Amino acid sequence: MKVHSIEDDRVRRRNIRQNEQAGPITRGAAQGNRVALYSRAFFQLWLFRIGCFVQRFAWSVTIASILFYGICCWGLKDVTIETDIVKLWVSQGGRLNEELNYLSNVQIRNIQRRKREAPVKPVNAKKGHQAPRRRVVELPKENGLGGGFQVVIQTPSFTGENVLSKDSLLRHVKLMQEIADYHVDLYGEKWRLSDICFKPPSPSFNSGPLAQVMTKMLDKIIPCIWITPIDCFWEGAKPLGPNPPLSLGEEITSFLSSLPEGNITWKNLNPTTVIQEVGQLFDMGPIGNFFERAGIDGAYLDRPCIDPLDNECPKLAPNYFDRCVALKKFQEWNMAKSPEEKITLEKKELPKKATTDGLAETLLSDIFGKKRKKREDATTTTEAPKGKKDDKVEDYYAYEEDTDYKVDSIGNSTKLGKKKPKAPVDKSCDEYGSSLLEWMRKNPDRLGEFLSEKEMPVYPDYGKIMTGGCKGFGKKIMQWPEDLIIGGIKRDDSRLQSAEALQSVFLVASPFDVYLRFKEDKADLHPTLNKRRWSPAMAHNIIVSWQRSYTKQLYGHKANFETEGVRVFHPLASTSIADMLEEFSQFNYFIIIMGYVLMVIYAGFTQARIEGRWLAIQSNVALAIVGVIIVTFCSISGLGFSTLLGINFNAATTQVVPFLSLGLGIDDMFLLLHNYDEIINTVHRNEMGILLKETGMSIMVTSTNNILSFISGIVLPIPALRSFCSQTAILLAFNLIFLVFIYPAIIGIDLRRQRAGMRDLGYCSRRKKIPTTGSVPNSVSSKVQLTSMPSSAEITPEIEEFHRNQPWYTVGGFLTNHYIPSLKKKVVKFIVLTTTLVAVIASLIGMYYSTLGLELADVLPEDTPPAAFLRAREKYFSFYPMFAVLRGDEIDIPRQQRMIEDYRSELGKSKYMIKAEGELQPYWMSMMRTWLKSLDVSLEKEIAAGRIDPLTAKTAKKNGTKPAPEAIIASHLVCSYGTTFNCSGRLGSLKMVDTDDVINPEGFYNYLTGWYNVDNMMYYVSQASFFPAPPGWEVSEGKPGLVPPAEPLLYSQIPFYQNDLVDTPAIVKMIKEIRGISEGFTERGLPNFPSGIAFTFWEQYLSLRWNLFMAICIIAFAVFAVISLLMFNPWAATLVMVIVVITTIELGGFMGIVGIKMNPISAVTLICAVGIGKLIPVRKLEKPYNFRRRIHRSRRACIPHGAGHCGRAP
Fold first, then answer.
1. Residues near 433 by beta carbon (within 8 Å), at least 6 away in sequence
2. CA 442 to chain centroid
3. Rounded average pLDDT over 610-614
4. Transmembrane ranges (predicted)?
5. Coarse DSSP helix, strand, coil percentages of the chain, rounded to the nearest 5 percent
6. Mean pLDDT across the chain, nearest whole number?
7. 87 with 653: CB under 8 angstroms?
8. Theoretical Cys-Cys bridge with 58: which of 37, 518, 569, 745, CB 3.0 to 4.6 Å?
């Protein structure tokens, strides 16, 4: 009998297979798609050539490819991790991005216009009327969750706690005091919240002895704008400072009796009485008018005290408790007790005389030095340079004579500087009063022993007082709705009964605003600050450092650790989310390395073949380990290449992409190794060519479809998700190159080891002797036996294939022996198809009931303080700020005032808009209108009194009384229209605001200049954020002149507060409603757009379903195109498309059934899942077998590692 070699047998089998396949074609009897066959043959031919090439030049291909990947890794040096949540969430080039950048674009266009018009000389007001430009407010931009809005939420310390109680409210007061005292040390100075907070500048004063001093004092004492529930009570003044307190000494407090003695803070200051007293002595300008319109009154002194037993509770408080009367009662009661029962109160040392600071000395010098200076100048005069006058002299000579300020009537003295002797005072109340109040707080049950019912301290009804919200220090312009500051409310009718959370909001100014605030020489505020080096960048560093210190200290606040697992204080700053995203965007090398090590262990274990005491020759452990390492290298180089393309990293890049690319890359690597075991036992030449010829089509089709699936995710307009999909697609492309070129070359190198008889991972071991003759092996072991082969005539036409040893407990054994045979049964097919139909119907129902939603807390990592804050906010507060922005470059504001009012009113009709006492909060035009009305009234009164000439606007005294400052300002405004100053026929007849509440369009921008400069505090409160800012201007008494017109406003905004935005559907509904109103008025000729946190983060939901539909369509089309192109089989492509659609419906329906809300993140997950899920049906269809072998093809597609799941029955 002739013995045949293994090679002879392989040649005969290959010839038989080729003859069987080509025979019908050559005879013209073949049926089917010849084009598909030729198309497949073409691609397989090139795959075969690639395989042969990389096998022949294995080392060269490997080294060259690794060098190429190494060059791509060079891009990692320029990695940028994006942590700005707006840039991560808002798509570039869309409507929302254009709206967010509208102001900056307008500013750029305005600068370009100014450069073009530079040769044209602008019209200026008359000399003496133009003032330096005021510090222009730059409103904090909404960056992330509110930008300049810093928030702290207080939640119950135990279950069922009512925060509308004395203890909870006082806890919030103490917290706010701590926040106000937080500081950072930078540039040689301590920087507190009062230095960087958003607050209005000091009001403008007329020239006079006290103007500069009053400005300096108000610079120190004007508080930050807080939005806090403790503003309902006197204790709301405690955090406002100033810190440290202002000390003017006895000389000043005796000079101005309305000033409190000792340290001056908002706890004891009555600003209205101080202004009234100073206004009787000096001309204070329109400041009194401002105080009246703002409703400052007694500030906090007339508000109830949370704790009437507080030693500093003012006498004007409605529930003030007279400790002196109580002390007398207590002493009488205590003296009647026996010595053993007597209570001893601790004596308090009286404070020493307060020392004056530099401000007090300046005040004394400016007041008392004036008269001396005048007397000295009367005897000895020094001529000043012509055209130039000393500021102090000009300040003094703004007054006509000494009688304009009557210093002889100041305070309680009849002679300047001498106080009227005070009556003797019983000091026992000061010495023991505070100790008594402390004892009363500790022993509330014993107060009835010496006090009657009427004399008992009265605690306020906190719920009643806080119903409807609270008011800031300006009661008429600072109204905080209760929904903004109180959460978890329970009511008794309309009255607040209890609540579960308190929220305080304060604004941090922009870096440029802080820079301008300290740009001028203010040595009394920060004496060691280097003004030459001072810059906006330094201001930015101060703000960011303070914000981080604020969140860090509140994260570690002791109240958050008194009860395990219960956090009481939840802070958030604009840096919180950015810092947290930056932290979680860093590569966690330990987790990544552990993940890859586990994959190496798994890959090595699955590819190990043991023979004797070590790995067998045909073991592939080395290939598996090297494959995982190279896949890792591919991922790294792919990330470097994406960086070169300008794609930034984010949290998804660092936390998801490495593992996703590893899983998808390893999947096809296992497929190559699976078929490699078969190839080396059936082929002796061009093994890599045959391997790619048989496996390459599957890899090409599945990898290409995966890449296109992730590319389709770019349809979703979310930059973070686009970056994620783009990077993953690039990494998959690099993996595809690896699988087609590099890994076959590495396998070719390993093949030389097997042919040389070396054990796996035992390259120094002795080679195993191989017999000179061969036979067909019967197992995957390395043992080779000689077998007698029949003659060629005896070889049957059936193709004998290589069979594996697959025990029943393996995946292959289960599929071969149980799963695949069961699918041949009609009953199983019927059950599978019926189950699929039921699943599709149930999924359609689930999709119908699915809801949109992505809570902000879900975007952040779990168990982080920012996530805890957002959960508390979503639970208790559904408040969001909003602005209606007017596109001034397309609007004639003076002549469209009525339409602007209609627009604001229409927005106010929305149920989501918060109204204080039934009215929307005032905005810049309404504030300006109110101011102009008050000027009209004052002007009319002064003209009637003869103190203002209606023809020339000149002023005159009548009966020793000068005209009111408001009337003088009004006369300048009425006579100014455009660039013209003309009083003829205007004073006394023209009203700046007509009976229809419309501001005179002719002088609108002149009035805007006046309001901006004179009523600048109101401008800050209005949050109008004008651009361009009106020019500087100040009124000069006796010198009527033009009020320069402001440039037409290119940007202005109207603030709103929104509520009841409890979830995503409500927010989406609100956005649709507000967008509809906005677009309606834009069509009517009032271009505008809404802006705010809700619009920034939920705008994408308006088109989410459509974008998801488009992405799924792209995936389906990509599958159809790829399969049709590579396999030229439209029918097979259509079948896969149907499976893709069914998979999409089932996944989407399942998400709806289990309550997973639809959002951009889940949409990308769905897209990726659908793209990856089509891998199995594509592998089933890629082999050129007839329909009778579909079951066998299904088994072959299910067996490789990485594909542990199968598709439906064919």
1. 311, 323, 324, 327, 348
2. 45
3. 75
4. 587-608, 620-644, 656-676, 697-718, 730-749, 827-849, 1106-1128, 1135-1154, 1160-1178
5. 55, 10, 40
6. 77
7. no
8. 745
